[in-house]
Amino acid sequence: MTTRAVAIGLACVALMALVIPYADLLVRGSWFGLTAFPIGSLLALLVVVLIVGVALRLAQRGLTPPELALIASMVLVGAGIPSFGLTGLLLPYLAGPTYFMTQERPDDSFLPLLPRWAMVQGHVPAGERISTPVAGFYEGWTGGEALPWADWVRPLGLWAIQIAAVYLVFFCLVSLFRKPWLRDERLVFPLAELPAAIVSEEGQTPTALVPAFFRSGLMWCFFLVPLLIHGLNGLNHYYPSIPRININQIQVDALLFTEHPWNQLGPFWVRVPFCIVGIAYFLPLSVARSLWVFYFVFMFQTFIGAQAGYTMPMVQAYPVRAFVGQQMWGGILVSGLYLVWTARHHLKRTLRAALSGAGAPDGEGELLSPRGALVGILLGVVVICAWGHAAGAGLVATAVVFGLYFLTHLVAVRLVCEGGMLYVQHPYRPLNFLLSCVGTARLQRTQIPMLALFDHVWMLDNRSPLMPPLMLTQRIADAAGLTRRRMAPALASALVVAAVCSVYAYLRVVYEYGGRQLDPWFTEYYSYTLYSRWSQDLVTVGAPPDPTGVWVMGAGAATFMGVLKLYHAYPKWALHPIGFLMGASWPMINFWFPVMLAWLIKGAVLRVGGVTLYRRLAPGFLGLILSEFVCAAIWTLVGVLTRSETAYQVFAI
């Protein structure tokens, strides 16, 4: 690791953090900070490799593979922070309740229960427009030239304490589970294939200006396919007379499933994101098969339920049936415990090393030392619980919610690393589980608002969480021979820079244009529709325990254990248990078809040419991923230049 690599990485992170809020909110193109492998991270790496790297090589000072790996890791963990990873959700939650509730529900009983120090203050009288920090956030700033930075310092500073504690636990968990997953189980890490190929030394020559990956003719042939199709569809977006090839959403339910009980299967559509085809090509066949098969298993259950006349409500905030989410949650809980159990020997050795003050077990370096990981988890949990107690959520309830969150989030990271999921969304979440088991009667009325806020900030729709890309950086480090222990300060610095720069950029955009004139998905949807209404009902009406839901979760846990047992006991068992955990969640609603398509292609490749042909075609499928990400950047840039209200979205997932 060198100073220049850290400097280049921080510069890239800062640039992304300043650009992504503008692109998300105003341009409304593809979301550059979305997913565990954000588009912005790859684009930043391409700039470094193809522009900065070439310039340095011409000056006889080229970047080494470990330096490229460090830069790739820094931009990977930093790219999600300005979007769904943190800033894009947190800031509206701090201003939205005050704005919407005082505007539309002045007699609301929910808002007064939120701690004033955790929210941005500023009363907004119903029907009036005055220049307060809250009103300006949604209607544009009219309070003079200076933006109200001071009003955000206190709540953001206090939230930074909890955020730092959560991120510390993430670093510690990655340090604890890196070795069991990468070295012992040898997970494939499909999302890391492309950045690892870019920074790899394999095939590199001293005189080459660019990495060997970019000199692959097969990669460029595959690259042309998404480029041409998205080029045509992008032109159609601006000139409707130009024909288009519909790969974004073919609504099968609207075309074919119009009669009962078939109409209960929606949403059911076909999408062909080329990047998912490219990623799923690197999945083991059993994993890819199980993902789309279990999606149809849950769809079949929905059909049977509709045929029998059962009422099948949706999970709060998701287009997923509650009984589906409950079954998945039962499997997820068991899977989380199973992941801890299978890593128990390594965890015991690490604990002994931490207590004795020795180095990492087996002499391998991690992001944190054994003692650092142990102390970090204890410190992080204590801070989180104390913060939640001070905010009114209660010590025990905060511990339960976040304990379940870390356990189930470990499963989400596993799904990203093993299943190649660009993002994971659990329809049922810790708060849903707590309410199903005990209802609101066991909770004090004052606890519910903050528990709901925790649920929404960290667990509802965090499609760019830190921990999955943090684990992916460990695979990239292995590909380039980068020392992991020396990565930790650089990655932590990237997070700080991303958070500070993105908060600045986000607030500049919303105060200049007004949040209600920007993309409502970020500024209004969660704060108003989900957070305010649903949480307020929990306070004013309450929710009884749901014994039926608990039984369904138990059935899901038992089913997952059965599938897990069959998978390990019978080598010819065709379904990997990971498919049950993804179920019919929002990612699989979007990804089932490209995963099935990649499964068919890979199966044919292995039958025809075996492993040799599979490896020979690998650069081509990496080219599909690269091309679609580049297309997203091109059409977002076109949206900026043309000042269109909505740019052509390559990714609408």
Q: What is the compact description of this entry?
A:
The protein is mainly α. Helices cover 67% and strands 0% of the residues.
Low-confidence stretches: none
- Give me the number of helical elements: 24
Q: What proportion of the residues is helical, as a percent range?
A: 55-70%
State the order of secondary-structure elements, H for helix, E for strand: HHHHHHHHHHHHHHHHHHHHHHHH
Structural notes for this entry:
By secondary structure, this protein is mainly alpha-helical. The chain has helices at 3-27, 39-58, 65-78, 81-85, 87-104, 133-139, 149-184, 193-199, 217-238, 252-255, 274-280, 285-308, 322-342, 344-356, 370-391, 395-419, 430-438, 448-460, 467-480, 487-513, 520-540, 547-569, 578-582, 586-642. Helix 2 packs antiparallel against helix 3 (65-78), helix 9 packs across helix 24 and helix 16 (395-419) packs across helix 19. It has 24 helices and no strands. The relative contact order is 0.18. The radius of gyration is 24 Å and the shape is globular. 67% of the residues lie in helices and 0% in strands.
